[in-house]
Amino acid sequence: PTPPPAHAMAPARAAASQPSQALLETEDDALNVEEQAGFFSRTLFLWAFSTAYRGYRQGRTDFEDLLDLPTRNKPRRLEANFRAAWARRAPGKQALLATVLESSRPLLCYCFFFRSLVMALSYVQPILLHALLEQLENASNPAPKSSGIDRLGTIPAAILLALTVTAYWLCWESYWFMNVRASLNMRTTLVHFTYRKGLSLAGNQALSARYSLGQLQNLISTDATKAADQLLPNAFTNIVNCMVSTLVAGYQLCALLGISAGLAGSLVIATFAPVSFLATRLLKRYIRRIQESRDVRGRILAEFLSAMRVVKCFCLEDFAECAISKARLAELRWQKRRRLLLPITNFLANSCGLLGMATAFAWFALVSPREPLTASKAFATLAWMNILNSALQQFPFTILSFVDVMVSLHRLEDFFRVDTGPDWLQPLDPHSGEAQQGVGTLRQGEARFTVADCTVAWGNEDQSGAGTGSSAEEKVIFGQGLSLEVPRGKLVLVCGPIGCGKSTLLALLSQTLKPCRGRCEVSPWSPASCALVAQRPWMQNDTLRENILFGCSEDPGRLRRILAACSLGPDLDALPSGLDTVVGEQGVQLSGGQRQRVSLARAAYSQADAVLLDDVLSALDSHVSQHVWEEVICRELAGRTRVVVTHQVQYCRDSRVDLVLVLGAGGDKLFYGTPSDLSSSPALQSLGLQPGSNEGPAPDAAAAGEEGSDLSDASPEAKKVTQGASNANEESRQVGGIAQGDFVLYARSCGGPLVLSVIVLLIAAYYASLLVSNYQLARWTDHSSAEGDRPRIDTFRSLSTDLYILDAPFPVISPWSNLSDERFSMGNAASDTGDIRTYLMLVLLTAACQLLFTLAVQIGAYTSSRNLYQQLMCKLLRVELSFFERTPTGQILNRCLKDIAQIDDTMAAVFLAAVQSVLDAVTAGVVLAATAPWSLLGLPPFCLGYAYVMRIYRWPARDLKRLEAMSRSPIMNHFSDSIRGGATIQAYGHEKRFMLKNLQLGEVLASTSYTYWGVRTWNAQALEFLGSIFLMVACFAVAMEAAAGRIAPGVVGLALSYAIDMPRKLMFISINVANLETAFVAVERIAQYTTLPQESDTVGDEGVLPAEGTSDTCGLLVHRVWFYYSASGPWVLQGLSLRLHQGARAAVVGRTGCGKSSLLSTLVRLYNIQSGSIIVGGRDISQMPLLELRKIVRILLQDPIFFTGTIRSNLAGLPDEVSPLGGHGAPGDEKMMNTLDALGLAEIIQSLGGLGCRVEESGHNFSQGQRQLLCLARTLLDIPLAAGSEGAEPKPIPTPTSPNGCEQAGAAVPQLVLCDEPTSSCDLATDATIHKTLLEVLPKKLTVIVVCHRLHRVHSFDTIVVMEEGRLAETGSPAELLQEGKTTIFKDMCAKQGVL
Fold first, then answer.
1. DSSP assignment string, 730-781
2. Is the per-residue pLDDT at 392 higher than 60?
3. What does the pLDDT read at residue 1098?
4. Which of 516, 647, 910, 1319 lies at 20 to 30 Å from 798 by C-alpha?
5. pTM, full prediction
6. CB–CB of 541/728 below 8 Å?
7. H helices within 1148-1291, ranges in order?
8. How far, CA to CA in Å, does 68 sit from each of 9, 36, 1013?
9. Residue 792 has what pLDDT?
């Protein structure tokens, strides 16, 4: 039959492109398919069939096939409920738990209702079984009781029992789905509010150091989802079920066997409770330690992934692997203890049930008065014993699950209580504030800044309420108190040396940093009143259009004008998708200058009437810098309040500048006044300017500003973005079944054939001992029946229970149900003693085999997770750099954290459940066929329906699980982007818009989970319905045979028990096998990363060397090099040829995007060239091992990248965890201080506590200029600095060895130093120091290449290299290129910048 069309999530899909409006469209009162369904459809979950059938017919399920969420599950409603509940509960204890429960109250009530029905129906089953068997016993008694019932009365009783079992499982599945829905609601709200708090924290620079990006990502990916993963509502209902079931079952046992026997069996079971609690406490400790270790691993991994250029350039792959492995080993130590404890805990819990039943029957047979143990009494007793045993087994694990959730909730509650102000709980009204900004008339209201006696102290716990977690020294800025006023509509320039507090001042003005003393006011303060362009520009992992519009509606004319003013037109023309090109994470697809201009365009396009610009001209070429100053700062932003931090002090003389603020080294205010007053102030000399000097904008600056069309020709570097980059945020996924290779990979990682053979043998031994024990019980029953002194009991299979195996996300049938169902048939005491002894020995052997095989599975799973992660890290860290540039860090972290956690935590339980469900069904079928073959009459039609339902279910189940894994990545990516840009988002006042975006992404994730569980529950209900038909046929057949008197009551009980178990066991085969497939999605995703292309140690054949000049005097030879970033993109370097002699000091200049940084990247083989050759020291770099190449070619990247740690560890290029402090091969402290002294940093570092000074994440406690100098020191650390020493030779770099034994390659002599704009964020004095170091202090035989944007010092170089459109345009000495009467590109550039 053709199914009805699924109600797809079209509004949610549209929300990706129109966040605010689309979310409103999804928040209407329209009912989804579940809410529109009738009673029968809801009961059997037929409303989910259309989605399952569509996925089966199409062969795949996509996001468009997802079901819409029910009205009560809509994110906006959940957000409002949680916010209101938290406002009431926040002051109290356990506030977060109370808030979560209160906000999910309706679904929790449904959960308790259905669980109550499940409990009642579970109690009815043994009562009905007892009544049915008692009827048969009374009917077969020669002297029936007066209340006896005719034999045909057993047929209705058997049918009623079958219907009760069917109702039990139908209610159970409904309960489970409601439980999942409540858990999904908890996940949506906790993830969202964790995001909101993280965004609020990231926008507060004083508090952001308390939590690293890795810790925040672990909070949102693990702790915020723990309530859903551990199914918190189920924990509450299980606690109630365990307590009630213990009381009811204990009472029934005493009523059936007598008080003494019932109490004896119950007390034996209860005796093991303290052991279970002790094991629970140990498991709690282990889980907490595992989570803490994951925090550390996530932080280290996030740092390395965000600094892959540094890792590649400095050959830190081995050290990165060692650092991550060290954190992973600490985690695995606790994982191993947990895995060893789990089988022992299960063994003790299950053994107590066996011993309790054995004790009860032995007491009844040997101690109690000699009354017959009838079949009805024995079968009912054992059914109640199963309920009691199940309750006592579940209780400690339920407590453990609850405690595990509470650990995460406590961590989140501590996080939520960090004082960031009330804004993180503000209502999300898309119709107000910035959520739906449009372009309109700029507000003319008063907007000025007032700073009154402000002092800032980094690391001060009093000001932030939270320390940095270390005893690092405070860094005090504005120690004497800074006071100033910025009038409305004025242009204010802020100048001063590096580290004086210029960026800190902008943080104060943007309200992202609070002073520890004094006050900073912005009047009026309202959303979107301030635009911030950070020194390190922040870019969303989105299209250029969205990065520029930033929530504003698009005005094409105004957008074109601003793009032209920011000189972005030619760059956009070079991009394959123009404004719709995805820039990648942190804008990696763009050059530094392009990122800066895009951020500037965002500020210009915004409605903000105050604009804060932090050194926006530093990353731009001279002519582009002049154009931006004229067209953007002075023209496009005219009339707005502008505070511009800059090191280009020539603009202080510009007549359009209203005020100039000059700060001293400690943040003291040296001068604040007009440019005319500055000329007579002593502060003028601190800027490197002289009274009456002609340094400043070129005379033809205005004319240069009008040459926008010629400022940035086609930008080859911009062409780095290809057509495929437009889908960079879309994570790839497999389709169809899990590949056989993924199963093979997991099997091999477990230990190979040997370990698998041991597991198979132990499983075979377990089931063999189980069958032998059943046979022994049957023989014992026959022996007892032959004695004839009381009714005998045959082998018995109990009613199935909903026992949980720890870590399994679904109910499974415990293998112990086979053991706990063994029944004693009691003869006289003397004859029964030997049979009891033999049977107990077999039961203990079975228990031992079960312990060994579960232990072997856990060890194999531990080995597999360890080996898989090791393979993943070994491959991932050596993947080509282009992979990290096009893949968001959130996607990589999602696989390295979430998928690995799933393999660690659930794979063993899922594998055990799948194997045991298959073997249990086979064993049950064999025993049932041997004892009552006529009960299998209904099996063939059931199997046909089973196969049909299973075939439909498997396809959508796999794909929905893949979609669920994929939908987590956008949340992680968006979270990472938001944390990195927290200061910018808060300055613009766009917190609400980003919070709404997080809600939309959470809705997609919730929809995938909701659809998956709806389809899964439909599958279970369909199989239950088919099973009920089989069960009624089997019960009817057994009842007819019993009515005819052809089988004894004990055999009736045995046959009915197996008939009751059989449908459920077959159903669990489908569910557990499908769950195994979905669990293997994590292995599949890890396997994808282990097959990524690796960096080649050598590339191609020996390069074709040019005829001339490959002698020892040639420092660098680039011969006809052609290079592109992608085969579908344009050429970036086009036949470039360049020759530099050994010891040359070369300055590379050219327009933005002409290929300067690309040239440097090819010199260290971050990217491989397509043709040509590059010769360094007479050797083709394509034939040099990467490690050797990157040791002899040292590079300083454009972006200063830092690790969390100390100054010492960052200079060594390693995080603290593996920094070889003072060890073999490690640079000594004296050498580090000498290098810092040469760069003018020694005094600053000493004042902060020396080399042990703490460096926060990304170096936020240092200015951009200081970070740039420290990165330069790291580059030059292994190179001897001998000023004036003509004969100074570079010394070989020794082989470094990490504490974990990871070694790098042998000694290498540095021959080439590459610097990509090393002075972009430095003042003039520091600029002079750096150039002196590079040009004079470094060894004379060392070739130095520097990319220069500012041309005021290029005359100091002996060679100028001018690039244009990826080609060498000019080369020669400065004197040659500036020769009078000669027209050159370089001369024109110098003229425009005024440095002729």
1. SPP---SSPPHHHHHHHHHHTT-HHHHHHHHHHHHHHHHHHHHHHHHHHHHH
2. yes
3. 63
4. 910
5. 0.69
6. yes
7. 1156-1163, 1186-1192, 1207-1211, 1229-1238, 1242-1247, 1264-1276
8. 5, 12, 13
9. 35
DSSP bridge pairs for 451: 484, 520
Say which DSSP state 789 is in.
Answer: S
pLDDT tens, position by position, 298-307: 888 888 887 8
The 3-state DSSP composition of the chain as helix, strand, coil percent (nearest 5) reads 60, 10, 30
User: What sections of 1132-1196 are H helices per DSSP?
Assistant: 1156-1163, 1186-1192
The half-sphere exposure of 1040 on its side-chain side, counting CA atoms within 13 A, is 9
Q: Which residues contact 734 (CB under 8 A, 6 or more apart)?
A: 962, 1084, 1088
Across the chain, mean pLDDT equals: 75
Beta carbons within 10 angstroms of residue 723's beta carbon: 13
Amino acid identity, residue 727?
A: N
Structure confidence by residue, pLDDT tens digits, 496-530 = 887 788 888 888 888 888 888 888 887 754 444 68
Q: CB neighbours (10 Å) of residue 1276?
A: 23
Say whether pLDDT at 1295 is over 70: no
| Local confidence band at 234 (pLDDT 50, 70, 90 cut-offs) | confident
> In sequence order, what DSSP letters do the residues of 450-488 get, joined into one string?
EEEEEEEEET-HHHHSS--SS-PPPEEEEEEEEEEEE-T
* Cis amide leading into 524 (omega within 30): yes
How far, in Å, CA of 306 to CA of 314, rounded? Answer: 15
Asked if residue 928 lies in contact with residue 1058, where contact means CB atoms within 8 angstroms, the answer is: yes
Cβ atoms of 718 and 594 within 8 Å: the answer is yes
Q: Which of 1223, 1157, 1165 is CA-nearest to residue 1191?
A: 1165
Tens digit of each residue's pLDDT (9 = 90 or more) over 740-780: 777 788 888 887 788 888 888 888 888 888 777 766 654 55
491-495 and 659-663 strand pairing = parallel
pLDDT tens by residue, 9-42: 333 333 333 333 343 344 445 678 888 888 888 8
Both tokens of residue 1382? 């000669």
Rg (CA), the chain: 37
The three-state secondary structure class of 918 is helix
Between CA 570 and CA 574, with CA 572 as vertex, the angle to 5 degrees is: 75
pLDDT, residue 366, reads: 66
Q: Look at residues 344, 336, 280 and name the one whose alpha carbon lies nearest to residue 851.
A: 344
Kind plus residue range of the DSSP H or E element containing 1136: strand 1133-1141
SS (H, E, C) 963-1018: HHHHHHHHHHHHHHHHHHCHHHHHHHCCHHHHHHHHHHHHHHHHHHHHHHHHHHHH
H-state helical runs in 1044-1167? 1049-1090, 1156-1163
